[in-house]
Amino acid sequence: MSDRTAGSRFWTLREVRPSAPYQTKYQWSNVYGGLEVMEGGSEFFKNPPVNLDLSSGYLHQISHSNTEAGHVIVWDGAGFHQKTQLEEVPDNIHLINLPPCRNSIRSSS
């Protein structure tokens, strides 16, 4: 909880600073997405929970979308994107893991 005073108007006694407590609430959703760069196709899968089974299911969805093509997937290194934990990666899927984020990589602005 925090107090919000900026941008709001209240009637109070002189020299009394009013406050309006509020709590920010978020609703999260996760989207797996892939783009086909040569022909402009796309594959998306939206689901609130994310886990290793859903990651594996998305890989199979992409694999079956075009069985003759090779698909390159870039993982961000999250716990449910560990290729060592995946039971079976389709033959036409190639996984690339991003390195962990470090301050030296980030732009200095």
Write the layout of secondary structure elements.
Elements lengths: L1 E3 L15 E3 L7 E6 L6 E6 L4 H14 L5 E5 L17 E5 L12
Parallel strand pairs: 5-6
Antiparallel strand pairs: 1-2, 3-4
Description of the structure:
This protein is of the alpha+beta class and 109 residues long. The protein has a domain at 30-97. It contains one helix and six strands; from the N terminus they run ββββαββ. The chain has one helix spanning 52-65; strands at residues 2-4, 20-22, 30-35, 42-47, 71-75, 93-97. It has a two-stranded antiparallel sheet with strand order 1-2. A two-stranded antiparallel ribbon has the order 3-4. Strands 5-6 form a two-stranded parallel sheet. It starts with a strand and ends in a 12-residue tail after the last strand. 3% of the residues are buried. The model has no long low-confidence stretch (mean pLDDT 75).
Task: Give a concise summary.
The chain is α+β, with helices and mostly antiparallel strands and 109 residues long. Helices cover 13% and strands 26% of the residues.
Helix content: 10-25%
Summed over residues and divided by their number, the pLDDT gives a mean of 75
Beta-strand content bin: 25-35%
Summarize the main sheet. 2 strands, antiparallel
Strand order of the largest sheet: 1-2
Low-confidence stretches: none
Q: How do the helices and strands follow one another from N- to C-terminus?
A: EEEEHEE
Measured distance between first and last alpha carbons: 31 Å
Silhouette? elongated
Number of helices: 1
Taking Cα atoms only, what radius of gyration do you get, to the nearest Å? 23 Å
For the secondary structure, the number of strands is 6
> What oligomeric assembly is this protein in?
single chain
Kindly name the structural category: alpha+beta
